Amino acid sequence: MKITNEMLQSAIAKAIELGVLPRRSHPEDIATNAEIMHEVLLAALEKSSNENDIPDVNMKHRK
After folding, report:
1. Which member of 24, 34, 48, 58 has the greatest number of CB atoms within 10 A?
2. 56: part of which helix (H) or strand (E)?
3. CA torsion sign, 6 to 62 to 52 to 50?
4. Euclidean distance between CA atoms 46 and 54, whole angstroms
5. Would you state the pLDDT for residue 11?
6. pTM of the entire predicted model
7. Residue 63: exposed, middle, or buried by beta-carbon count in 10 A (0-12, 13-18, 19+)?
8. What's the average pLDDT block by block, 10 residues per block, for the chain (63 residues)?
9. pLDDT at residue 13, rounded to an integer
10. Phi and psi, residue 34, nearest 5°
11. How far apart are CA 59 and CA 26, in angstroms?
């Protein structure tokens, strides 16, 4: 499965919302964060395609 720009932007927005990524960043940090999030999404999709029988798990963020 290909990671679309919409998927990447959504993941970045959620990471910012949850405090994983900072709300304000320098331009070079924004590009780095996007690359990191892309790698995270790729890893998740690869794992998902390799283990289709794993049930969906709802994880709740703790503050």
Report:
1. 34
2. none
3. positive
4. 13
5. 92
6. 0.66
7. exposed
8. 88 92 89 91 85 58 51
9. 92
10. -65, -40
11. 30
Can you give the pLDDT at residue 57? 55
Both tokens assigned to 5: 């720009």
Beta-carbon neighbour count of residue 17 at 10 Å? Answer: 11
User: How many Å apart are CA 19 and CA 13, to the nearest integer?
Assistant: 10
Amino acid making up residue 2: K
CB-based contacts of 40: which residues, under 8 Å, 6+ apart? 11
Interatomic CA distance for residues 55 and 35, integer angstroms: 28
Listing DSSP states for 4-46 in one string gives PHHHHHHHHHHHHHTTSS-SS--HHHHHHHHHHHHHHHHHHHH
